[in-house]
User: Fold this.
Amino acid sequence: MGLSDEATARLEDVVALQPTKNAELAERWGMDGGSEVHQYLESELADHYYRDENSLIRATADAATLVGEEPNEDGPRTVRVPALQHRAFGVVADHDERAESVVSVLHKLRDDAADVGGNGGTTDDDDLTADDVRSALRGLERRGVVEVIQRTVPTFRLAVERDAVSIEPIDDE
Assistant:
């Protein structure tokens, strides 16, 4: 028996966001919390996902094929991420630069929005918090494209050369 349209769309999210957490999927799917996500995964996608050694949710290879994801072996690795992670990847310190704090990345994001928008940033950027940026950077870390350098506070920089990976934003619905 095939997957419903909703289950297929949600499996696409798992593939695109992997490795991911219940909370990230709950936010994406408009669910109340991690237990609701877990229940959905077990009832609808049990054969298509697993949890890795860090309890992060990953799609099986068959699941990726089922939703049309194919590995790109000829060029940069492609990673699909939420919009804020996409923006954070664009401004975080390069792999050969000194790692920077969450607050530094937050200021870069706000400055970048001001430069692009020309209006001092958007309301969304004004509402952007250090916790939002930290979460985005940790999401990029889980995907292996950002590393954490522990100092007095955690600092971040790319774990790979910027052109070794193609970061694509997921359309927010």
User: Anything to note?
Assistant: The helical segments are 5-17, 22-29, 34-44, 61-66, 83-91, 102-117, 123-127, 130-142. The chain is about 45% helix and 15% strand. The first strand starts at residue 49 and ends at 51.
